[in-house]
Structure formats: C-alpha cells, structure tokens
Amino acid sequence: MTLTSFFRIILAGAIAASVSGCSYLAKAILAPQKDISKFYLLTPTADTATPTSATAPTQSSSDSFTLGLGPIKLPPYLDRPEIVTRAAPNRLELSKEDRWGESLQNGFTRAMQRDLAAQSGAVVIVFPWYNTVHIDMQVQIDVYRFETDSQGVATLSAKWTILDSTGKNILYTVETRLTQPSKPGDNTEAAAALSRTIGDLSSQIANMIQQLRSHQGAHPA
Hints:
Blueprint: H1 3-30, E1 38-40, H2 45-48, E2 66-73, E3 82-88, E4 91-100, H3 104-120, E5 123-126, E6 137-149, E7 154-163, E8 170-180, H4 187-218
Parallel strand pairs: 1-4, 2-5, 2-6, 3-6
Antiparallel strand pairs: 3-4, 6-7, 7-8
C-alpha cells in the first residue's frame, strides 16, 4: 500500500466519522424534547371552604342585590404565562418551568367573582356588562403587586373602590396590602397562598358592602 493510498483511507474514515457524528447530533437536536412545564390555577376560597364555614347571607328573590365587578387592572409585568417571583425589591425572576394555566387577569377575576358572590350574597357580574343590566354597586380594583417573594410570602397590594349604581359616585376607596405565607420555591404553595390573598381582599370588600347597604337601609333616599 502506497503512502497516498494510506492517507486516502484515513481521510475517508475521518469523513465518515464526521458525517456519522453530525447525523447523530442533528437527530439529538431535532428529536422531540420532553415538556417539563407545570401549570397552575388560582382557586377561589369559596371552592375550598367547608359548608360550615360559609358566612354569606341568605338572599331572597325580593332582596336581590347585583354587584358589578371591574374593571380589574393588573400591572403589565404580570401579563405573561410564566409565574413571577420577586427576588429583590427591584428584581423579578420568571420561572422556566412553571406557568399559569390561564391568563392571570382571567384567573384573578374568576376567583374574585366567586369569592365576592359567596361572601356578600350578591349576584356578581363581571365588567363589561350591558347598559340594560341594573347594578346596585360597582367595585373597581387596581392591583399594584401580586406575586410571592424568595421567602415564599405572597403579597397582594391593591387599591379598591366601591361606587354607587351610576358608577359615577365613590362610596368608599382604600389601599390594601395583604400577605399569606407559603413554602419558598414551591409554586403549588405559592398559587394557593395567592388565592388566599384574593379571598382576604374579597372579605374586606364584602364587609364594606354590607356596611354601606346597612347605612343605605337606615337612611333611604
């Protein structure tokens, strides 16, 4: 075998090995990757409460009360599928694996609607509604913060306002900051803790609505 033939054989082997390696690498890259995403939902406290813990007043058909819920505004940084954790006062972390199963706006509104209906005894209609629908009072919520931190503390900070049936006159407005503990780094616990903060906010709103209704009943127009 000549030296030239020897080098040709070596070169052919190297090319074959290179092609085989590239083929394997391409298959590895193009092969379907396992989806490790996990999805979470906010749960109304009304859905997890035991029957004996229900405190909503019983409404008769002649004493029905309709509450308009919304608009509800969440900060833009939460308008994403990834679960957000506040790692520091000025730094957020987005989970690479954990996602919300629905938009946070929809989840927050759904949980608030269920909780308010259970705690106030009112028929709760979500904004927007038809002009033909009669609203006895309206609740607007402007959320500033709604996430857990690195210690697992869930925080809901918001300004909420109750308006009269016309939606023009403010009956009550206040800023509220609510917290609930959870296990650090566990987004199952985080979702449950955030759900509880919604229930706590709903309870505050429902209590104020009852006070306003009692005041209106004592001082009819």
